[in-house]
Amino acid sequence: MMKHRIVSKEAVSVRIDKYLCEYLEEYTRNRIQKLLEDNMVEVNEKPVKANYKVKYNDIIVVTVPDAVEPDILPENIKLDIVYEDNDIIVVNKPKGMVVHPAPGHYSGTLVNGLLYHCQGRLSGINGVLRPGIVHRIDMDTTGLIVACKNDYAHNFIGEQLKIHSSTRKYQAICYNNINEDEGTVNAPIGRHPVDRKKMAINYNNGRDAVTHYRVIKRFKKFTHIECRLETGRTHQIRVHMASINHPLLGDIIYGPKSCPYNLQGQTLHAGVLGFIHPGTKKYVEFEAPLPEYFTKLLSIME
To answer: For a FRET experiment, which of 81, 147, 232, 259 has its CA 20 to 30 Å from that of 100?
Structure first.
């Protein structure tokens, strides 16, 4: 795959690795530097290295080798199935499970378990790495996720996610007391300008993101909240709550680096999921109870 870019006046004298990080948002800085090392980046038909500073009207051509997709094998993984029929399967995902295979996680994922349980009968729209997956939740987020068994169901539910007509409610514990009983964070989210593994409020290159929150209970140093998503950006609740000085408890990426409790990642649970069913065309809604670690935390905070 080849990507072309002509440098504008505004970008003159910027190192090419930094320039490409802004332009190629889907790639990490390490990935871009590897492309430069492998002579996959040419400026005016000549390979350049990472320290090259771009000039006005430079013609940049980036050649990205086609990814070799590994074989994703079915695995007999116990799944907490909330609902299943010929079109969809709704699973309550545990903490620590990755939704779909990615570098470093090619086994033990939800997809591996779904392939085994559904005997391969999953939608193919997202390719072999993400069969059946319409949306995702983070590895350390627990709760509901729907997968689709055919392309029609995938497109039908995917459209609802796109136009924000589905229901997605999460429970979380955040730092500090929230004074108001409810509120909304409306701020675009995009790739962090420096740390490419993180997301951030990004008014220049971000996508619209809206999170509604309400207080369930206040504790001395924390607040138990429910968040309702209008949009579904990567790390949306984590980024939005951190942006208003209420990062999620246990989230060492967007919150304090140390945690007063022994936790595995953020305290975030996808508890309610609702949508129009692709087969019956009727609204269905599913609930998953809070995981044990979450309820124990709430009892400790009493």
So the answer is: 259
